[in-house]
């Protein structure tokens, strides 16, 4: 298919040979530093010219309309969340979307038999405005919701009167609002935010995150309740206990450790629960006890209990075992423990005293929990005093679904299973183990049609992440479904740096051990070839965010192992990343360029600094979310410019800019579908995969 395209003509790029800096006695040239000024006319013109070349290729791929139809069939499905009970007479709220909706709506019903009514419908907003969160007050009369523009970051809290549909004049202080938790009497709420402009030195606007309390209608600025006055990189989150007596306050050192305090709401006393920043902890108040899920002295996690009268005197309730304990949720008087068992989820039910009762058998190999800004969020929900147990579940071939679990009958009943046009029975999810360069055994999921011929010629898309304690677990996406319908194979390598196998697995690829993640990923690509699935020319490597760094390094270090690379929203200049927004916090993961040892290590693999003219690199697409607030949006620009100038034996190298998308994707389903179509078009073009006819989509 690549031969069907005319010779590609990329725009001329200005190279500033004098641009650079000295670090630890070594000169590093930075000829494309001028691109860091994204709004400059020269940068904008260059982006537009690169975009024109990329679109000329992707939009000429035969069968693109059929690809769009295939993605849309698996992306546009009805969505529904478990109910959120708030207020008297059975009033409940929920998230819902029809297949035709571009954005999720927030709904409510006045009682259990009443029809659904719309509270917030962001489909009526501007296309670039997103409803990021919505939290009803305990009495069900108000909703605090976050609206963001251009992405799902930098949300601003607004308060809606449910009965009248009118916005209250309240405007909580600060920026980038998250983590709303109401006071039990609905008089106000706690939330996390960064300071107002001018409250901190220039350049620190993304730091000094703290917990504030806003009182409705008070007219006075929200008071700062909890935070840190010395470490600007810490960030915070908050919950209010089911009993209504405490606000549970978290302060995080990125994803590596946190401290937890209880704010006693009766007298505003601050009570330490996990005061030392040396482990990851999640806390739940049950009766007169505190449940603490921690990896302190237990790299794979354990559950402890402490009396509220002595909340730091922990006693182990569920000990560490060979699986990784991700979350524990108290529901209906029992403890639901979700484990990562070889990178997919297993649920075990325990009594209040920690004794094992039974497993909750899931529909298939898949995922229950999810990763969010507040760490790992349990997919088991309900209240300690209630009897409803809700279970979220998905797999590579089943879209996010909701089940009810009845403990008395040990029955898991479907509540909402979407129709995405994919027959799960036609596919198989295998798990294999392979050896990395140093002999470490690494797991990998492989998803394909049951009748797949093992002829060594199948198109394979390999994914990885390998960082920040984030696990690569079974997840459904419309892109996955469309690739499977094309006859493609999906592979997901659980490389070191992730959280699949506990703290030790994560730390095995932190700082000056990060090469382990790259070695694991390269070994996965080579195993797929040796096992007869594919050839290097039919293997696409795909990574997002930290996964983008992973696939870029792997392609530079082992270019012969990959046929194509799709690198989305990455960090690629590892000597300059701390200069971008909140990324200075990531030195706890990557190491610091200012440290002589860590800086030299970073320079040794930093993609922007390790392009070699004598290597034939695979065809690559670098995707930049131009309004990205998480990763530097200029890094893909600089990388493409340098590859086009210096990596001339390989390629070609494309830039695909995204506008009003943010780090995680577009603000509308239509935008997300179009991004998926571009990605699939790239694979078809690069790997010579024939798209289906529209009637087959």
UniProtKB/TrEMBL annotation:
Residue ranges annotated for the Peptidase S9A N-terminal domain, each copy included: 11-416
Substrates-to-products reaction catalysed: Hydrolysis of Pro-|-Xaa >> Ala-|-Xaa in oligopeptides
UniProt entry keywords in alphabetical sequence: Hydrolase, Protease, Serine protease
Residue span(s) of domain Peptidase S9 prolyl oligopeptidase catalytic: 477-687
Highest taxon in the source lineage: Bacteria
InterPro entries: AB_hydrolase_fold, Pept_S9_AS, Pept_S9A_N, Peptidase_S9_cat, Peptidase_S9A, Prolyl_oligopep/macrocyclase
Entry EC no(s): 3.4.21.26
Enzyme class of the recorded protein, top EC level: hydrolase
Similarity-based family: Belongs to the peptidase S9A family.
Name used for this protein in its record: prolyl oligopeptidase
Record organism: Archangium minus
């Amino acid at each position: 298919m690549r031969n069907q395209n005319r010779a590609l003509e990329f725009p001329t790029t200005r190279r500033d040979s004098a641009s650079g800096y000295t670090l630890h006695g070594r000169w590093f040239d930075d000829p494309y530093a001028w691109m860091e000024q994204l709004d400059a006319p020269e940068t904008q013109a260059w982006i537009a010219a690169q975009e024109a070349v990329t679109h000329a290729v992707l939009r000429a791929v035969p069968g693109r309309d059929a690809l769009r139809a295939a993605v849309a069939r698996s992306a546009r499905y009805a969505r529904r969340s478990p109910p959120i009970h708030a207020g008297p007479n059975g009033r409940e709220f929920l998230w819902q979307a029809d297949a035709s909706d571009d954005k999720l709506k927030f709904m409510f019903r006045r009682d259990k038999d009443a029809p659904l009514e719309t509270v917030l419908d962001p489909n009526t907003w501007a296309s670039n405005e997103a409803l990021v969160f919505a939290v009803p007050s305990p009495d069900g009369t108000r909703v605090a919701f976050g609206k963001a523009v251009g992405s799902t970051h930098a949300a601003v809290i607004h308060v809606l009167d449910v009965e009248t549909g009118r916005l209250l004049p309240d405007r909580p202080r600060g920026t980038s609002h998250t983590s709303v938790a109401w006071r039990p009497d609905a008089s106000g709420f706690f939330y996390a935010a960064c300071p107002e402009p001018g409250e901190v030195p220039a350049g620190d606007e993304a730091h000094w995150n703290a917990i504030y309390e806003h009182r409705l209608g008070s007219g006075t600025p929200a008071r700062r309740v909890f935070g840190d006055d010395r470490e600007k990189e810490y960030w915070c989150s908050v919950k209010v206990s089911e009993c209504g007596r405490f606000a549970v306050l978290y302060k995080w050192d990125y994803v590596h450790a946190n401290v937890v305090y209880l704010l006693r709401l009766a007298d505003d006393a601050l009570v330490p629960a996990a005061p030392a920043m040396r482990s990851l902890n999640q806390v739940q108040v049950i009766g007169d006890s505190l449940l603490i899920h921690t990896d302190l002295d237990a790299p794979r996690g354990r559950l402890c209990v402490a009396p509220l009268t002595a909340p730091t005197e922990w006693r182990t309730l569920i000990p560490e075992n060979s699986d990784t304990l991700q979350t524990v949720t108290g529901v209906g008087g029992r403890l639901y423990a979700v484990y990562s068992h070889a990178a997919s989820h297993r649920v075990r039910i325990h009594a209040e005293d920690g004794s094992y009762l039974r497993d909750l058998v899931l529909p298939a190999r898949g995922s229950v929990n999810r990763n969010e800004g507040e760490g790992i969020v349990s997919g088991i929900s309900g209240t300690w005093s209630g009897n409803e147990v809700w279970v979220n579940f998905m797999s590579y071939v089943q879209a996010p679904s909701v089940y009810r679990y009845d403990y008395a009958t040990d029955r898991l009943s479907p509540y909402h299973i979407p129709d995405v046009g994919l027959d799960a029975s036609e596919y198989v999810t295998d798990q294999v183990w392979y050896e990395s360069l140093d002999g470490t055994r690494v797991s990998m999921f492989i998803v394909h049609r049951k009748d797949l011929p093992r002829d060594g010629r199948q198109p394979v898309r390999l994914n990885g992440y390998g960082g920040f304690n984030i696990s690569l677990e079974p997840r459904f996406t419309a892109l996955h479904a469309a690739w499977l319908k094309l006859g493609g194979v999906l592979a997901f390598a659980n490389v070191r740096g992730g959280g699949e196998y506990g703290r030790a697995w994560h730390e095995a690829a932190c700082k000056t051990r990060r090469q382990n993640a790259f070695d694991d990923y390269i070994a996965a690509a080579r195993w797929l070839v040796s096992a007869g699935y594919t050839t290097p020319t039919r293997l696409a490597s795909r990574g997002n965010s930290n996964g983008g760094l992973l696939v870029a390094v792997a392609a530079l270090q082992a270019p012969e192992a990959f046929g194509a690379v799709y690198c989305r929203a990455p960090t690629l200049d590892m000597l300059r990343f701390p200069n971008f927004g909140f990324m200075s916090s990531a030195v706890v993961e990557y190491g610091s360029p200012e440290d002589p040892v860590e800086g030299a290590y970073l320079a040794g693999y930093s993609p922007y600094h390790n392009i070699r003219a004598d290597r034939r690199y695979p065809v690559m697409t670098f995707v930049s979310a131009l309004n990205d607030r998480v990763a530097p949006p200029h890094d893909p620009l600089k990388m493409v410019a340098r590859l086009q100038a210096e990596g001339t034996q390989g390629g070609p190298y494309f830039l695909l800019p995204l506008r009003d998308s943010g780090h995680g994707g577009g603000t509308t389903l239509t935008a997300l579908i179009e991004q998926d179509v571009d990605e699939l078009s790239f694979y078809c073009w690069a790997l010579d995969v024939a798209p289906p006819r529209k009637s087959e989509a």
